């Protein structure tokens, strides 16, 4: 039903995206950071086989979401836009690889933190008003969907992977700062917010390699951390909804769908979930996944993971379909 509705006009006026590498569509290309993906084999299954900065072989879950909502193009990477103007009428993407709930890791990797992403969004609102007038801009702003996501703990592990001196993986915590992000987004006019949960962090190929003590099973400690975080996120969202009755805030669960893909790949049309496609599939991501990586698979369509942290396009499609069902109240 939703898919049919989406054939004509988009279901909402715009889609604004915040987050980290899971949603970054090229913002980090413009930054002085090692956390990049704008070189092959990234993007090899994307339009024109072009690397764009997406940490994936093809489309991200947010790209599929834009399609599902009826948009004919994806919200552009805000920092990539030379001319903003009409390009931002249907939304924009502020996500930056290695940002996340920790301002400190964003700083460490010279990424755009969530609070800086909000500053960019403020700028974007002014540009919208210039292009289409205050009144049109304000209906775009209040009607738009805001999708936000964070792997949060991953950037820390980047450092660990590079330095190989890891001992533990700091837990993401929902702090007052995180509440502030949602409050600020609301204060800026957002009324439809979808926030995705943490994935089963212990099932990412890199987690198993680094923390699995030689086993090929998901690391339950890390999965428990994610479950606890998600529970708090849920409570936070209930509180926010109490404070702001006109806010539609939906927690979009990606934990269970990704967990199912990893633990029962063949039931979902996949055959490889332990190893990622790129390189050995055990540790590589970002600059460690490049055209010289040895062992990269020929066809990622049956791999759950593209690199050792990031789902493949095929897995993203499954996740996006679940998001659509979970997020139905955002468009009704
Ligand atoms: C506001 O939107 C309407 C309908 O799309 C359009 O006709 C009008 O030109 C817009 N206003 C400005 C100032 O661009
Ligand atoms: C959040 O809470 C609701 C009900 O309070 C529950 O149905 C849902 O499964 C919870 N989601 C997560 C991710 O814990
Ligand atoms: C990858 O394999 C799938 C079937 O598993 C096939 O449909 C697709 O065309 C293949 N892609 C490439 C690039 O070979």
TrEMBL record:
UniProt cross-references to InterPro entries, sorted A to Z: GDSL, GDSL_lipolytic_enzyme, SGNH_hydro_sf, SGNH_plant_lipase-like
Q: Which Pfam families match?
A: Lipase_GDSL
Mark the transmembrane ranges. none
According to the UniProt entry, its GO molecular function terms are: hydrolase activity, acting on ester bonds
Q: Which family does it belong to?
A: Belongs to the 'GDSL' lipolytic enzyme family.
PANTHER family from the UniProt entry: GDSL ESTERASE/LIPASE EXL3, GDSL-LIKE LIPASE_ACYLHYDROLASE FAMILY PROTEIN, EXPRESSED
Name listed for the protein in its UniProt record: GDSL esterase/lipase
Q: What organism is listed for this UniProt entry?
A: Senna tora
């Amino acid at each position: 039903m939703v898919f049919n509705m989406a054939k004509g006009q988009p279901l909402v006026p715009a889609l604004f995206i915040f987050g980290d590498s899971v949603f970054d569509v090229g913002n980090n290309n413009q930054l002085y950071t090692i956390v990049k993906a704008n070189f092959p084999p990234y993007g090899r299954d994307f339009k024109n086989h072009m690397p764009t900065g997406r940490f994936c072989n093809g489309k991200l879950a947010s790209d599929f979401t834009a399609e599902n909502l009826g948009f004919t193009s994806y919200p552009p990477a805000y920092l990539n836009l030379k001319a903003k103007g009409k390009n931002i009428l249907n939304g924009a993407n502020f996500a930056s690889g290695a940002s996340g709930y920790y301002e400190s890791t964003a700083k460490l990797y010279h990424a755009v933190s969530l609070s800086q992403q909000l500053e960019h969004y403020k700028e974007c609102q002014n540009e919208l008003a210039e292009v289409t007038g205050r009144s049109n801009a304000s209906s775009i702003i209040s009607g738009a969907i805001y999708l936000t996501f964070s792997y949060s703990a991953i950037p820390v592990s980047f450092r660990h992977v590079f330095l190989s001196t890891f001992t533990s993986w700091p837990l993401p915590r929902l702090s007052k700062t995180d509440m502030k992000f949602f409050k600020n987004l609301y204060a800026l006019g957002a009324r439809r917010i979808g926030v995705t949960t943490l994935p089963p962090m212990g099932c990412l190929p890199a987690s198993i390699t680094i923390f699995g003590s030689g086993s090929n099973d998901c690391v339950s400690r890390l999965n428990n951390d994610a479950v606890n975080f998600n529970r708090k996120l849920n409570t936070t969202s209930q509180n926010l909804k109490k404070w702001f009755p006109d806010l539609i805030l939906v927690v979009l669960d990606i934990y269970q769908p990704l967990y199912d893909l990893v633990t029962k790949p063949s039931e979902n049309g996949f055959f490889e979930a332990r190893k990622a496609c790129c390189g050995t599939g055990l540790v590589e991501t970002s600059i460690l996944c490049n055209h010289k990586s040895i062992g990269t698979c020929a066809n990622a369509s049956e791999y759950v993971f593209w690199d050792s942290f990031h789902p493949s396009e095929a897995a993203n499609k499954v996740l996006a379909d679940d998001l659509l069902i979970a997020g139905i109240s955002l468009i009704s």
